[in-house]
Design a protein that fits this description.
The chain is an alpha+beta fold and about 140 residues long. Helix content is about 15%, strand content about 45%. The radius of gyration is 19 Å and the shape is globular.
Amino acid sequence: MTQRKTHRTLFTMAFLAALAAPAFSQPANAPTLVALNTLELGLWQLRSADGGAPRSMCVTDPRALLQIQHLGVACNRFVISNDARQSSVHYTCPGAGHGRTTVRVETPRLIQIDSQGVSRNEPFAMLLEGRRVGNCTTRVGMR
């Protein structure tokens, strides 16, 4: 009888752990972020608030704007806030670092990005303004 009770308890604990797992992290493609869905796809220019050289980015999936410091890396995302004007996520990239990014949508062609975290064992923080400047000519990530 004791062995059966232990088996049932272990089974119940494993079942509950499996149910709870999706609540802690989601695959990179899971969240639907309302604010990002309003953005126009195409060539975007990102300017740093500190006056650094602007960067160009072909945006074919607006979720790439959430992890500019970890562009192209498979990361898990946890949605912090999600409304029509602003989306915030915390993301973790196994072996590459983590970050927290907020994208505020001014218009479908103008955004503000605030991102900070750790990349390659070094802290980073960036404030960027993004503007859609045209259509993509090639499918490149960031230049």
